[in-house]
Amino acid sequence: MRGGMQPAKLGMFELLQAALRHCQNNMLAFIGFALLPMVPLIVVGLLALAMPRGIQDMITPVLQVIALGVSGLSAGMVVLLAYDRLAGVTRPVSAYVTRVSGLWLPLFVLSAVSALLMLIGLYLVILPGLIAMALFLPLVSVILFEDAGMEGLVASFKLVAPRLWPTVGLCVMLVLVSLAIVLAFVILGAALATTTLGLILLVPIVYALSALLAALHAVTGMFLYMHLRELDLPGRSVVTE
After folding, report:
1. What does the pLDDT look like over 52-97, one tens digit per residue?
2. Residue-wise pLDDT tens digits, 103-123
3. With contact defined as beta carbons under 8 Å apart, do 110 and 70 qualify?
């Protein structure tokens, strides 16, 4: 693995550092891959802005729920690319699209379910939300690497459960880093909002922020998966040409 990176031997803090470095080194590619499945949703969302207020109120909750599932497709694209970048493998974009498309149902449904569980837990009491986040952080990697299908939630739960509290600690650090990134973008947005051009630029910046955070969570989940499975190098191809 490049740079002597060995996830099986890293602690949780080092795992997050490794994920951040990997995202930094491949930022534009990861953002692009994360945005790719979001394009239809973004287009529909923009079209909805031109609709009457009543229709917007009906469409918005539906789009929000769909977005939870689409996040799984985005994470799948990023995880496959991140995995190949670690192995030094180059593939056409179509190979990643084909692989994710073949697993769209578990990626979409289970990502939406896990996200809802996490959001409910965070809303009621913070700790249950963090526990849900920890248990399902490697969910996308489990689906992609182990062909877990609709059993992905159970497989992810079983994988994380023996190391639950260290993984909760990882999630706390991941949330703090994500908040710091959001804060930096808020400061940038406040500066841009003072001009007309800045307001126009805010739209792609918001989407880029969303994609960046999605990529960071996906890559962190991949490194966690490799750590828990004691993998130091990609063991087999998970992308079909």
Report:
1. 878 777 887 888 888 889 999 999 999 999 999 988 888 999 999 9
2. 999 999 999 999 999 988 888
3. no
